[in-house]
Design goal:
- This protein is mainly β and about 300 residues long.
- It has one domain: Porin (Beta Barrel), CATH 2.40.160.40.
- A 12-stranded antiparallel beta barrel has the order 1-2-3-4-5-6-7-8-9-10-11-12.
- A hairpin with a 2-residue loop joins β2 and β3.
- The longest helix is centred in the N-terminal third of the chain and has 19 residues.
- The protein is globular.
- The termini are far apart.
- The N terminus is likely disordered.
Length: about 300
């Protein structure tokens, strides 16, 4: 069997995109402190929002295997800002490289999360609203919705990018933390804004815990409390015309996050398809950094009020 060769032009384009994303993540104010550890989830959301006035820059990659087509590397960058204690807003931009094909920009998303209850409760609800403007070649698989299956992604980028998706996505983020354990459940409903398209349904669930709950007295990189491990499961639940598990895909993914004392967070996830409609492997990794006081800094720079 002949080995696959990735075109040099695609590699150069991929390198440039990743370099830009990494530069944005590294840029600005290295000395900002952070308030809390980040969760290990990549698909599932817990109830914690961004601190008011803080900016978080995140970069993620997904390598996916593809039967009946070429494997791919999808990537996205997130800019997340804490507007208030109950509102976090975020913008994504995404792209992908399909090996032996091409590297393309696949769209943008605008996400908003609203905390519905002021204090901590046994179960903490957060309303999630996202507007998506993507094309059919988008492969970040941040959610797996409706009847999304592996074969949907087997066509060439030239064909897939002809499809344009303008969607509204709603989630109810239900999350609880007890004795160090976090359990999160996210029911999902998505509507393509074309009137003829039905509502699509999906889910994401996760559970995680730090390796240790008690902080070490000394600053260190490899202290057990810096590591949070868990698992998440996600998949589609059909649509309003054909709800259920028929012709849907599902994944189970161990996850781990390493929260460094230097205020960086590294994440790793290895997702495995649970049925024949799923990609065999979705390997994800990411890096993020939070800059506290970013809003105040902008106020000082532009002479606004704090």
């Amino acid at each position: 069997m002949m080995a696959r060769v990735v075109p040099a032009r695609a590699l150069r384009t991929l390198f440039r995109f990743n370099l830009i994303a990494l530069f944005l993540s590294l840029h600005f104010l290295w000395s900002f402190p952070v308030f809390a550890q980040e969760s290990p989830y990549i698909v599932t959301y817990d109830h914690y929002l961004e601190e008011p006035g803080s900016l978080e820059l995140e970069y993620f990659s997904t390598f996916g295997t593809q039967r009946g087509g070429n494997d791919f590397h999808a990537f996205w960058t997130e800019f997340e800002y804490g507007v208030t204690a109950w509102w976090t807003t975020e913008v994504y931009v995404s792209g992908q490289t399909t090996f032996n094909d091409s590297t393309i920009f696949t769209g943008d998303r605008w996400e908003n999360r609203f905390r519905l209850l002021q204090r901590e409760h046994i179960v903490n609800p957060v309303l999630y609203i996202e507007v998506e403007n993507t094309n059919g070649a988008d492969k970040i698989l941040k959610e797996v919705e409706g009847h999304d299956v592996e074969s949907d992604y087997a066509e060439s980028n030239a064909e897939l990018r002809k499809e344009h998706d303008h969607e509204l996505e709603l989630k109810l983020l239900l999350s609880s933390t007890f004795k160090g354990w976090n359990v999160a459940v996210n029911p999902i409903a998505t509507k393509n804004l074309l009137p003829s398209e039905p509502w699509e349904f999906a889910y994401a669930i996760g559970a995680s815990r730090p390796f240790a709950l008690k902080a070490s007295p000394n600053r260190c990189n490899f202290c057990p409390e810096n590591f949070i491990a868990g698992v998440e499961m996600y998949g589609g639940l059909g649509d309003a015309q054909s709800a259920g598990l028929h012709d849907t895909s599902h994944y189970l993914a161990p996850v781990i996050a390493w929260n460094l004392p230097s205020d960086w967070t590294l994440r790793l996830s290895s997702g495995f398809g649970l049925n024949d409609n799923s990609h065999r492997l979705l390997l994800r990794w990411g890096v993020s950094r939070e800059f506290s006081g970013f809003g105040s800094l902008l106020g000082h720079m532009f002479g606004g009020r704090q």
